[in-house]
Specification:
2 copies of one chain form a homodimer. By secondary structure, chain A is an alpha+beta fold. Chain A folds into 2 domains: 13-154, PurM-like, N-terminal domain (60s Ribosomal Protein L30, Chain: A, 2-Layer Sandwich); 169-336, Alpha-Beta Complex (Phosphoribosyl-aminoimidazole Synthetase, Chain A, domain 2), CATH 3.90.650. Chain A contains 10 helices and 13 strands. Chain A has helices spanning 12-25, 73-89, 110-126, 178-195, 207-214, 220-228, 243-254, 269-277, 282-288, 304-307; strands at 35-37, 44-47, 51-61, 94-104, 130-138, 143-154, 169-173, 235-239, 257-261, 294-299, 313-320, 325-328, 334-336. In chain A, the strands form 2 sheets. Chain A has a 7-stranded mixed β-sheet with strand order 8-10-7-11-9-12-13. Chain A has a 6-stranded mixed β-sheet with strand order 1-2-3-6-4-5, with helices on one face. Chains A and B meet through helix 1, strand 2, strand 3, strand 4 and helix 3 of A and helix 1, strand 2, strand 3, strand 4 and helix 3 of B.
Chain lengths: 347, 347
C-alpha cells in the first residue's frame, strides 16, 4: 500500500554485520550527561555516579543461531543468558540483572517454553544474576530469544576495546575452537540421523567440545581472578565471533597493531585429531571458530609476572604501534589477519 | 535427535499470555540486595542507592504486532521505542537509555533497516533518550524488533501496580480506542487493495486514529505534569493491551475492587461515527482496543482538585475494598469486567 520512498536496495551481505551496524548508528548522537559510552563496545555504559551500569542485548534466532534438532531447550535457555553475561564481563564488570524476551510460534507447547526458562533460571543461579523482567509473545514462525543483561562496573576497572597500547601483551582465557568443532560433530550426526532415523547419534568421546557448543560458560571466574591478581586489562572483548574477528576489533578500536603467534593459540588437544578427521586446519578453527565466550584482553607488560603461571590464561602475542593484525606462523611467516564478515551458523 | 523428557504438550492458548508468564517466572527467586522489584510490573526496578533504575523489554514481531503492508518502516522504528518508554513512564520515571535488537531476513535491504533506525533515532530525539547498544542479526523469516528501555525513578515517586487503596480515584490520560479503530481502517483498506491493487487507499479524514495506530506517543508529558502538580499516583500502568485488561491488572496487584463508569471512558468523537460504520460498540472499543499507550493510574481523593480541570486527564471511576472490576453502565447496571486473554493483532 505504501511504497518506500527509498528506491535503493543494498543487500545486507554487501556490508556485513559490522558494516551494517556502523551505518545504522552513525546518526546516533548521545545527549544525556550520564551516557558514558554508547555503541561500539561489548556493552553500553551508564554513569551512576560512583560506578557504571553496563547494558547489552543479544538475540538468538532459530535457524540462525541454533538448531533445535540437536540443541536441547534447557541448554538453549542457559546459553542465551551466558552470551549476554559474557558481554558484561568483557567490560570488566559484574553481571547482575537480565530481562528476557521470547517470541514463540504455536508449534511450541507451554512445556517447551518452560524448559527454556529452566535453563535461564539455572544460568541466573549459577552466575548470581536476577531475572527482573521480560516479554513473551507469539511469533509467526520459530523461536527467538532476546536477552538484555546489565551489570555493575567500577569506574576504575571499566575496560573498553580501545585502551591497548604499545608493548601490551595479548592474552586469551581458556581455549578456542572447541565450540565450532562441537557444532561440526552435531551437524555430522544430524545428517546421519536424517539419512537413517534409526541410527543413534555417535557423540561419545566428544563431551568437551559438545559442552563448549551446547552449554558454554561465561568467564566470570577470569574477571574475579584478574581482580584478585590486581591486573587491570588495557582493553578487552569476549570471543563470540572468533578470535581473529575479535583481535581485529581490539586493533581497530585501540588504533594499534596486534600480532599473535600461531603456536601460542590455545587449542584443546582433542581438537587436533578431530580436525584431521574433518580435513580442517587447526589454526583456522582456532582463529575463526566462534562461540567460545572466552575473554581476549591486553595487559601492560609489567603485569606479565602476575598472570604467566596461570593455566587459564595464555599470552598469545603483543601490541605495537601501527594498524591491523598479523599472525606469526610456526615457520615465522607474517600473515595478515582478515575479518570474516557476516558469519552465522546455518541451522 | 534428542527427545524431550517432558511428554506433556499444553497449548499456549490454554494459559493465555499472562497465565504463561505467571507459570514461567514462578521459579524466579531474587538473590541480589539491589533487586528492588522483579517481574509483574511495567518494569523491573534496580536499587542504585539514591534512585531506582527501571528496566523493561518489549518485542515487536512481524505478522503478530505489525503488518508491513501498511506500517511504514520508519513508523515501526518509532513505535517500537515508544512502547518501551511507555513502560518506564508507567513506573513514574524518566526514560533515559535504550538498546535495540533487530532480527531481519535477507528479503530486507540495508535501506529498509536504515528506515527502521531513522524512526528509532527520531523517537530518541523526541523523548531525550540515548541509544547505547544493540544487536543486528539474520532471521530465517520476517522482521523482529526487541527493545529494552531503562530510566531513572526517584525512590519517593516510584509507582507500582499494587498501591491503589480504598476511595482512590481511577484516572486515565488522553483517550482510548483510537489505535484500535485506526487498525480497523488500515485492515479494511488492505482488503480493498488486495482485491483491487489499482485502488488508492481511502485514509482521508481518519488522520487522528491512523496516527494513534501508526505513530503513537508515550505520555512523558503526563509524568511531567503529575510532577508539576505534585500528584503522586498510588498505582499506575500503561494502556497497551486495552483499558479493561489494565484495570484488572491494577485491581489484582492492589487487591482492591475497581469500578469505572461507562460514560466517563474518554473516547474521541470521531470514533462514534466510525463504530457505527463498522458495527462496533463504542464502549467495547474503548475497553478492549489496545495500543493506546495512555497512562491509567489511581490517586488519593485529596488530589482530585489538582487534576480535575486538566483536559488531558479523565477521572473514570473509584477504588474500593474487594476484588475484581466493574463497569457501571449508562443505565446504572453493574457489569463485571473480564480479561481478554492472549490477544494479538493478526497481520
Amino acid at each position: 500500500m505504501f511504497d518506500s520512498k527509498n528506491p535503493q536496495r543494498t543487500p545486507i551481505s554487501e556490508l556485513g554485520e559490522f558494516g551494517l551496524i556502523d551505518r545504522l548508528v552513525k546518526n546516533a548522537k548521545s545527549k544525556l550527561p550520564n551516557t558514558a559510552f554508547a555503541m561500539g563496545d561489548d556493552a553500553g555504559l551508564i554513569d551512576q555516579g560512583e560506578y557504571f551500569t553496563a547494558i547489552t542485548t543479544d538475540l538468538l534466532v532459530e535457524g540462525v543461531h541454533f538448531d533445535l534438532s540437536y540443541m536441547p531447550l534447557k541448554h538453549l535457555g542457559y546459553k542465551s543468558v551466558i552470551v549476554n553475561l559474557s558481554d558484561v564481563y568483557a567490560m570488566n564488570g559484574t553481571a547482575e540483572h537480565i530481562t528476557v524476551g521470547i517470541a514463540v510460534s504455536n508449534r511450541f507447547p507451554v512445556e517447551a517454553i518452560e524448559e527454556v526458562y529452566e535453563g535461564i533460571h539455572l544460568a541466573c543461579e549459577h552466575y548470581n544474576v536476577d531475572l527482573i523482567g521480560g516479554d513473551t509473545t507469539a511469533s509467526s514462525s520459530g523461536l527467538m530469544i532476546s536477552i538484555t543483561a546489565t551489570g555493575r562496573v567500577r569506574k576504575e576497572n571499566a575496560t573498553m576495546r580501545s585502551g591497548a597500547k604499545d608493548n601490551d601483551l595479548i592474552v586469551v582465557s581458556g581455549d578456542v575452537g572447541g565450540a565450532y568443532m562441537g557444532l561440526q560433530i552435531l551437524e555430522r550426526e544430524k545428517q546421519v540421523f536424517i539419512e537413517n532415523p534409526d541410527m543413534q547419534p555417535e557423540l561419545g568421546g566428544h563431551e568437551y567440545i559438545l559442552e563448549r557448543q551446547l552449554k558454554p560458560e561465561a568467564r566470570k571466574d577470569i574477571i574475579d581472578l584478574l581482580h584478585k591478581l590486581e591486573v587491570q586489562p588495557t582493553s578487552m572483548i569476549d570471543v563470540s565471533d572468533g578470535l581473529s574477528s575479535e583481535i581485529l576489533h581490539l586493533s581497530k578500536a585501540s588504533s594499534h597493531q596486534f600480532n599473535i603467534y600461531e603456536n601460542k593459540i590455545p587449542i584443546d588437544p582433542s581438537i587436533y585429531a578431530l580436525c584431521e578427521e574433518f580435513n580442517l586446519n587447526t589454526t583456522t578453527v582456532g582463529l575463526n571458530g566462534g562461540e567460545d565466550y572466552e575473554l581476549l584482553f591486553t595487559i601492560g607488560i609489567e603485569d606479565h609476572d602476575k598472570i604467566k603461571a596461570n593455566p587459564n590464561l595464555s599470552v598469545i602475542g603483543y601490541v605495537k604501534e601501527g594498524s591491523g593484525a598479523n599472525l606469526i606462523t610456526r615457520d615465522d611467516k607474517v600473515v595478515e589477519l582478515k575479518a570474516q564478515g557476516f558469519k552465522h551458523h546455518e541451522g
